[in-house]
Specification:
16 helices
C-alpha cells in the first residue's frame, strides 16, 4: 500500500543531455494532484470492504457468520477488493517518482521515515490495546515481538505481525530502497528512471527462472510490474506522451495482469474469483492512474480530495483489526443490524484516521523530519 505523500515535488527541467523537454500541462507539476488523492482513498476502501465483507476467517467470527450470508450481493463484489493493494502499488510508483525528483538521498530518506512511522507506531499501540481488551478478535503478540514490530522489519525477521496489512509496507519499503539507491542517490532524471524500469523488468523475468528466495525478496516479481507502471506513468505526466514511457506502461500492464490473475484467481485451491474480472480490475487501476498522468483529471481539483488522500494511510493501517473489533461490539454485542454496523464501522475508522492525521502525523511528521536532519553534536 504505498501509503506515500501525494504532494508533487518542485518541478525541475530535464537535464540538457537527455533532450527530453518537460511539458507544462494543466495540473501537471505546479499543483497538487487531487485526483490521485481520491484514487488512493478508493484503493483503501476496496481493501476495507474486502476485509469486512469479502473474506472469511476472523471477520466471520466478528460477524458470527460468513459475510457472504449477511451481504450476498456485496460479497460477490468485495471479494475482489484485495486488488486495491495492487492499485496502491501503481499509485505508489507514480508518487515516489514524483516526490523523489529534485531531492537528495537524505531528503528522500527523511521524507519516507517521517511519512511512514508516526501513524504506524500509533496504529501498533491501538491494535495492541484492542487485542488486550478483546483477545477473541485479535491475539496480542509478546512484548519482544511488539518491539520488533516497531521497526517495520518484523516480516523478514520472522516475527508475528501486529497489523495484518503491514506486509504491504515491507513491499513498499523494498521499493523505496531500490529506487533510492539506484536512482535518487545519483539524481532522478528521465533517462535514469527509464533505465531503472528496464533493468527491473528484466530482473523480474530472470527471477522467475531461478527460484532463489533472496532474489525474490530483492526483485519482488509479483509486485514489481505495478510499481514500474506507476513510474513510467509519472514520466508521461512530467514529460508528455512518448512511445518509450507508454511502452513501459503497456509492458508492465501485460506482466501485472498475469501476476494478479495467477496469484488471486484461486484461494486455498478454490476458484473464488473470475480471472477476467481480475484482469479488468488491474486494467482499470492502470487506466485510472493513466488518466491522471495524461492530465485528463485536472478538473477534479476539489479540496476535499486532499483530505481524502491524507486519511488514506492511517485508515489503511487501522481499519482491519480495529474494524473487526468494532463489528464484534456493535453487531454481536449490541445487536445492531449488519448494514448499519458496516456503515458505522467504516465511518468510525475514517474518523479515527482523521484524528491520527491531525493529532499525530501533522505535528510529529515535520518534527521527525527536522530531527533527522539535525547534525549530531561532536563529542569532546
Amino acid at each position: 500500500m504505498s501509503a506515500s505523500s501525494s504532494a508533487p515535488a518542485t518541478a525541475l527541467p530535464a537535464p540538457a543531455p537527455e533532450r527530453v523537454p518537460a511539458r507544462s500541462a494543466p495540473g501537471a507539476r505546479g499543483s497538487r494532484l487531487y485526483a490521485l488523492d481520491g484514487l488512493r482513498l478508493l484503493a483503501a476502501l476496496m481493501v476495507c470492504l474486502y476485509h469486512y465483507t469479502g473474506r472469511g476467517g476472523p471477520v466471520s467470527a466478528s460477524w458470527h457468520q460468513a459475510p457472504s450470508h449477511l451481504f450476498p450481493t456485496l460479497s460477490h463484489v468485495s471479494v475482489y477488493g484485495n486488488l486495491g493493494v495492487q492499485f496502491f502499488f501503481v499509485i505508489s510508483g507514480f508518487v515516489i517518482c514524483m516526490s523523489g525528483w529534485g531531492r537528495t538521498l537524505g531528503d528522500f530518506f527523511r521524507s519516507r521515515v517521517a511519512r511512514l512511522y508516526p501513524a504506524y507506531w500509533v496504529a501498533l499501540v491501538l491494535v495492541t490495546g484492542a487485542s488486550l481488551a478483546l483477545p477473541v478478535v485479535v491475539h496480542a503478540v509478546r512484548a519482544d515481538e511488539f518491539l520488533v514490530n516497531l521497526t517495520m522489519l518484523q516480516q523478514p525477521m520472522g516475527v508475528p505481525r501486529v497489523l495484518g496489512v503491514c506486509w504491504t509496507l515491507w513491499v513498499e519499503v523494498r521499493f523505496y530502497a531500490l529506487f533510492a539507491l539506484l536512482v535518487v542517490a545519483r539524481g532522478v532524471t528521465y533517462r535514469r528512471v527509464v533505465m531503472f524500469c528496464g533493468v527491473w523488468t528484466l530482473a523480474v523475468v530472470l527471477c522467475r527462472t531461478n527460484g532463489n528466495a533472496l532474489t525474490d525478496q530483492l526483485v519482488m516479481p509479483d509486485y514489481a510490474p505495478f510499481f514500474i507502471g506507476g513510474l513510467a506513468l509519472y514520466l508521461v505526466h512530467r514529460f508528455g506522451n512518448g512511445l518509450l514511457p507508454w511502452g513501459i506502461v503497456a509492458f508492465s500492464w501485460l506482466l501485472a495482469q498475469s501476476d494478479a490473475t495467477r496469484g488471486l484467481w484461486h484461494t486455498h485451491g478454490e476458484p473464488v474469483r473470475d480471472p477476467y474480472v481480475v484482469m479488468a480490475i488491474v486494467t482499470l487501476a492502470f487506466a485510472a492512474v493513466a488518466v491522471v498522468a495524461a492530465g485528463w483529471a485536472a478538473r477534479a481539483n476539489w479540496s476535499w480530495l486532499a483530505t481524502a488522500g491524507a486519511l488514506t494511510y492511517p485508515f489503511y493501517l487501522v481499519h482491519e483489526h480495529l474494524g473487526w473489533f468494532v463489528i464484534r461490539v456493535l453487531h454481536r454485542g449490541l445487536g445492531l443490524p449488519a448494514w448499519p454496523t458496516l456503515g458505522a464501522t467504516v465511518l468510525s475508522m475514517l474518523t479515527l484516521a482523521w484524528l491520527i492525521h491531525r493529532l499525530v502525523e501533522k505535528p510529529l511528521g515535520p518534527r521527525l523530519r527536522r530531527a533527522l536532519k539535525r547534525p549530531v553534536d561532536t563529542l569532546g
